[in-house]
């Protein structure tokens, strides 16, 4: 089977979607299938990678967002025809929704992966009142359901808005590379008051408005106000980086340079005592899962999918600096917190995730064949 994946919101510094595409592609190939991927690029380029054949096509940069978008439907359609896939898997419900109809006209099964929560976007990030915003989200979601043969979401939180309109959404959680992301500290050696060293914190997530990274900065401010000796390292880039650096200039916060080596990132994150993952609309939260795999317990919001991922390996709190600071304090006191973090991460496997995706592709292949 030849599976074509297409994604628009992918950049050299993007996180979860990029990792999911790479890992699924690797596993598809390991299970004997062909995998191709179309993503934005500065120009036309075709490379053979571990995840399959990658087509980078010319795209238009979005000012201040760090992403580029492929707009040329004619060029894309010709490229997809030339690739001749058996099924397609699209990781963008907006700019590429037409691809479901493209596939149907050619008798090809199609899957849309919903990496964003449309209801949350409409309610939180538009000036539209809640009632009309929810109606608009439902309308957009119905169009996606109509255009694609199957809808996949990475969490129950992201599936709920499809279930709400009576549609089927298949929940396929992502995984984590448990070999690359692993504990580097003895789980029994934890921070204790009077130890003579600061509490080491890390921020998880891209530095963009929808991830609400300001909450991590203000959590540190609240901990300092309470008299704690803390240091936070921010791993992640995004359009808010300079603004956040200005916001944090009087605080013990370091913005780490972008790390491309995953093993190096794991070693750096694994030295932390606790992590802060503030994203309120995460449909999964891969960055938080990776830090859990390093044995670092995590504070996350009581909204979005992060609480599904973090489970009992952290603290679920309201999205306020005071509540998140309380969560950090609780984790520092909690016995076995580091071991629990690793155990929670071990529930998520890329091979299981890819097998579930493959089962859907094979089902669609049988239906259209």
Q: Give the count of structural domains.
A: 2
The main sheet orders its strands as 3-4-2-1-7-8-9-10
For CATH, the homologous superfamily of the largest domain is named as Glycogen Phosphorylase B
Derived from helix and strand composition plus strand pairing, the structural class reads alpha/beta
Which SSEs are present, and which pair or pack?
Blueprint lengths: L1 E5 L9 H15 L3 E8 L3 E5 L2 E7 L1 E2 L6 E2 L3 H11 L3 E4 L7 H8 L3 E5 L4 H8 L4 H18 L2 E4 L2 H8 L6 E2 L27 E6 L9 H12 L4 E6 L5 H7 L5 E3 L6 H8 L4 E3 L9 H8 L4 E4 L4 H5 L3 E4 L3 H13 L3 H9 L4 H19 L1
Parallel strand pairs: 1-2, 1-7, 2-4, 7-8, 8-9, 9-10, 11-12, 11-14, 12-13, 14-15, 15-16
Antiparallel strand pairs: 3-4, 5-6
Helix pairs in contact: 1-14, 4-5, 7-12, 10-13
Word description of this protein:
The protein is of the alpha/beta class. It folds into 2 domains: 2-175 and 349-368, Rossmann fold; 199-345, 3-Layer(aba) Sandwich (Rossmann fold). 40% of the residues lie in helices and 19% in strands. It contains 14 helices and 16 strands. It has helices at 16-30, 73-83, 98-105, 118-125, 130-147, 156-163, 214-225, 241-247, 262-269, 286-293, 306-310, 321-333, 337-345, 350-368, and strands at 2-6, 34-41, 45-49, 52-58, 60-61, 68-69, 87-90, 109-113, 150-153, 170-171, 199-204, 230-235, 253-255, 274-276, 298-301, 314-317. The strands form 3 sheets. An 8-stranded mixed sheet has the order 3-4-2-1-7-8-9-10, with helices on both faces. Strand 12 (230-235), helix 8 (241-247) and strand 13 form a beta-alpha-beta unit. Helix 1 packs across helix 14, helix 7 crosses helix 12 (321-333) and helix 10 crosses helix 13. The N and C termini lie close together (12 Å). The mean pLDDT is 92.
């Amino acid at each position: 089977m030849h599976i074509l994946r297409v994604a628009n919101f992918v950049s050299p510094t993007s996180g979860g979607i990029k990792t999911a595409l790479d890992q699924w592609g690797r596993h598809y190939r390991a299970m004997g299938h062909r995998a191709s991927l179309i993503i934005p690029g500065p120009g036309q380029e075709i490379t053979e990678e571990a995840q399959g054949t990658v087509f980078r096509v010319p795209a238009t940069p979005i000012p201040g967002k760090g992403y580029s978008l492929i707009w040329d439907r004619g060029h894309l359609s010709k490229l997809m025809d030339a690739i001749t896939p058996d099924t397609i898997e699209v990781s963008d419900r907006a700019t590429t929704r037409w691809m479901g109809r493209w596939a149907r006209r050619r008798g090809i099964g199609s899957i849309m992966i919903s990496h964003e929560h449309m209801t949350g976007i409409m309610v939180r990030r538009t000036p539209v009142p809640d009632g009309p915003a929810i109606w608009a989200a439902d309308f957009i979601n119905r169009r996606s359901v109509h255009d694609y043969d199957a809808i996949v979401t990475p969490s129950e939180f992201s599936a709920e808005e499809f279930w709400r309109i009576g549609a089927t959404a298949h929940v396929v959680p992502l995984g984590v590379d448990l070999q690359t992301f692993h504990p580097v500290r003895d789980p029994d050696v934890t921070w204790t008051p009077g130890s003579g060293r600061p509490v080491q914190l890390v921020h998880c997530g891209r530095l963009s408005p929808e991830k609400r990274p300001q909450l991590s900065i203000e959590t540190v401010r609240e901990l300092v106000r309470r008299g704690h000796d803390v240091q936070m390292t921010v791993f992640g880039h995004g359009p808010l980086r300079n603004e956040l650096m200005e916001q944090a200039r009087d605080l013990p916060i370091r913005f780490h340079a972008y790390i491309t080596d995953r093993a190096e990132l794991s070693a750096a994150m694994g030295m932390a005592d606790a992590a802060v993952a503030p994203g309120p609309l995460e449909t999964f939260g891969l960055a938080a899962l990776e830090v859990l795999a390093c044995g670092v317990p995590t504070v996350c919001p009581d909204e979005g999918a992060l609480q599904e991922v973090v489970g009992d390996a952290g603290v679920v709190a309201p999205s306020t600096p005071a509540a998140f600071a309380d969560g950090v304090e609780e984790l520092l006191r909690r016995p076995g917190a580091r071991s629990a973090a690793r155990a929670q991460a071990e529930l998520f496997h890329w091979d299981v995730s890819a097998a579930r995706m493959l089962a859907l592709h094979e089902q669609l292949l049988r239906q259209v064949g």
